[in-house]
Design goal:
alpha+beta; nine-stranded mixed sheet; 5 helices; binds zinc ion
């Protein structure tokens, strides 16, 4: 631990495979849709953003691998399973063809806090993020630094205060960061895209999402 209390993220990765299920292939499709909308990608500095996950058994989950933001489609080699984690120690244990990113801590925290959540989508989007902060949308505090045990605790407290096992919130201390979650990918996607449309005016061509009010 350094002087400012920041606990460095540590990942213990074991090479292996992740079963390519219909559910995972479906989530890969949702990811491509979000990639095309600019919610997943790579910043000019080369840092990727955005990640999706699906609950596996217990609090384990399958999540998009680290540094995959440039790829429009991932397929079986772009995902890994998080087998265990400690938000307090900022440490993740994972297996698969690729390692998990530090953002997997946020996902794990929500799965642990809400047993009925089955899918989590984390994206970055300037306009959506700004609209959420300007509105009354749930958010973690701006002074909670991202990728820290403090952020994990803030996320757990926030999602426990949202009544349904589905929700959408902004991370004010993580620029452009938005998280949607629900019992399944369709529910999380619907929440995210509905708010996205409301922030941008109706865009045609997004199937299954009602027009903005
Ligand atoms: Zn992020």
């Amino acid at each position: 631990m350094t002087d400012d209390g920041y606990v460095k993220f540590q990942v213990e990765h074991r090479p292996g495979t992740v079963p390519w299920t219909a559910a995972l292939a479906g989530l890969d499709g949702v990811r491509t849709e979000l990639f095309d909308l600019g919610m997943i990608g790579v910043y000019p500095n080369g840092i990727g953003y955005g990640n999706l996950s699906l609950r596996d058994a217990g609090d384990t989950f399958i999540i998009t691998g680290t540094a995959t933001g440039a790829r429009r489609e991932l397929g079986p080699d772009g995902w890994c399973r998080v087998d265990g984690f400690s938000a307090e120690d900022n440490r993740v244990r994972c297996s698969g063809p690729i390692a998990a990113s530090s953002e997997s801590m946020t996902h794990g925290t929500i799965y642990q806090a809400l047993s009925r959540v089955g899918c989590i989508i984390h994206v970055h989007h300037r306009r959506l993020f700004d609209a959420m902060l300007a509105g009354s949308d749930p958010r973690t505090a701006a002074d909670v630094p991202y990728g820290t045990p403090a952020m994990a605790a803030a996320v757990a407290a926030l999602v426990r205060a949202i009544p349904e096992p589905a929700g959408l919130f902004a991370m004010a201390g993580h620029d452009e960061g938005v998280v949607a979650y629900g019992p399944d990918p369709a529910a999380a996607r619907h929440l995210l895209l509905t708010r996205f449309l409301a922030s941008s005016g109706a865009l045609p061509g997004i199937a299954g999402v009602p027009p903005a009010r």
